[in-house]
C-alpha cells in the first residue's frame, strides 16, 4: 500500500493533474502546493495541494507521514469526531487501516497504515456530483 509516486511531501505530485482530471471528469486548470512541512525524527511530514477544475470545483488533498506509528485506535476515534466537536464520521470500508466520511466536513479521512494518512475534500462540485464517491475514487487511486 504505497502512495502513487511515494511522495508524501508533495500532494500535487502524489496524485498528479492527469489523474485528478480523470477522476473528476473535468480538466484541471491549476494545482498549487499550499502547505509543505518537513518532518523530523519526532514530527510528521505533510503537504497539501489544491487542484482547481474547469467546472469550478476544487479538491484539497493532504498527505501525511509520521516517523513512527501514531494511528492508534484512540487517535482514529478522536479523528472521527474532530476531538468531540462534531457528529461522528461514518466508516468507509476497504480503504487502508481505517477510513471515514464526514457529512459535516464533506471530507474523507484515510489512515493508510500506522504512519500514513490522507485527507480528501471537494468544494464547489457541480449540482448532482457526489463528493463522497469522488473522494473515495481519489483514495483508491492512491492506495
Strand order of the largest sheet: 1-2-3-7-6-5-4
Radius of gyration over alpha carbons? 14 Å
Low-confidence runs: 1-5
Number of strands: 7
Shape, principal axes of CA atoms = globular
Fraction of residues in helix: 10-25%
Number of domains: 1
Order of helices and strands: HHEEEHEEEEH
The CATH topology corresponds to: Protein Transport Mog1p, Chain A
Q: Give the termini separation.
A: 5 Å
> What CATH architecture do you see?
3-Layer(aba) Sandwich
Report the average pLDDT across residues. 89
Structural class: alpha+beta
Q: Indicate the CATH class.
A: Alpha Beta
Tell me what you see in this structure.
With 143 residues, the protein is α+β, with helices and mostly antiparallel strands. It has a single domain (4-142), classed as Protein Transport Mog1p, Chain A (3-Layer(aba) Sandwich). It is built from four helices and seven strands, in the order ααβββαββββα. The protein has a seven-stranded antiparallel beta sheet with strand order 1-2-3-7-6-5-4, with helices on both faces. Residues 1-5 have low confidence and may be disordered.
